[in-house]
């Protein structure tokens, strides 16, 4: 008997399996069909990620991590470290990373086995005219104690989605892509903050040096006013030279006041950037501007993509969009799940935890989209177009990055030439100053003429200071355009699908 029973059981399983396969084969053609998949846009060609052959600097290479330490300025190091730790934009970036990680965990949790404890208590008055009418009677001999019942249910419920087509895996991959993009964006924010702090810091230092030059010019202007006042008082000359000298003195004083105001504005910009309170920004002592250390790689190509955190973030967003397309495609196919319950169910609480009240449910489920009013195709089309939009934005961002490098590099080339010419001009003007001073020492000219000969040199030195500040600013801009020492690991590959 047992052998016959086993044979019948195996036959029944084969028939059930055959029925399931046949039923699926019949139903699958009835699924909603993909009509609006579209085509992925192309990624930018490698030959477009390069510089013109006439753009080059004396040094080759990429920036180092913590690139600002090459200037050997403890004040700058402390300011950038403070900004990277406390700047509000850094706090926002880190919060966005934490939020993205939570989204990944949420997506991963949805694809796991779900188990929950269930318990309910239902006090019910049964209708004598309803479906459960016989239970409204009060006949204890027949097990009927109506019309009031207190039903209790307690147990464990479980559910599990079977990810046959990879929809849930694609959703997790999309969340991971966004999380990786947020991490790269954090590096981009760090680069933005560090370069902005450096630009503000050297703007302050440049203004300090400009004030020193203006003070020299002001001292000469004051001497000129005093000299012309004495001559006018003796009737040696008219008041016209005196008023001209006084106008020059006032002009220099105005420039000093403007420069001092500029320092205050730069400090307040620095305070806001660093996230410091009224007394949280340390005093910035004057230091000399560092010598230029700009370097430019001989070639850019795809290495620029791995060096720029903003480009890496966009690549991850594009990668996440491909996973969303996969999830949108998988939504066209049947989805399977299994639900189960094990516990106790009784109409009388006194019987709840008895063996007879045990209940077991095993419910395989199927969801098959057939007619959806075009919702799935619209979702797929939106995912594809959103991905193509990201690809085009990424391509434009790459071109903009190459442009930024080219502009900073070519500007540094021009500034290097201008600085050389201005240095020669200072030498020529200084020769004229030295000649006048030599004449003064021999008694051939006045002290006023000797001092006024310094003014063209001071003006030329101010112009050279401006050129040096512009060179340093462009060097920092080039560092930012080259990614500031960022290095993606591992590289992200774009695989449209």
UniProtKB/TrEMBL annotation:
It is found in: Cell membrane; Membrane. Coiled coil: none annotated. One of its GO terms (molecular function) is efflux transmembrane transporter activity. It comes from the Bacteria. One of its GO terms (cellular component) is plasma membrane. The keyword Transcription regulation does not apply. It is a lipid-anchor. Pfam families: OEP. Keywords: Lipoprotein, Membrane, Palmitate, Signal, Transmembrane, Transmembrane beta strand. Belongs to the outer membrane factor (OMF) (TC 1.B.17) family. This is Outer membrane protein, multidrug efflux system. It comes from Paraburkholderia susongensis. The lineage of its organism: Bacteria, Pseudomonadati, Pseudomonadota, Betaproteobacteria, Burkholderiales.
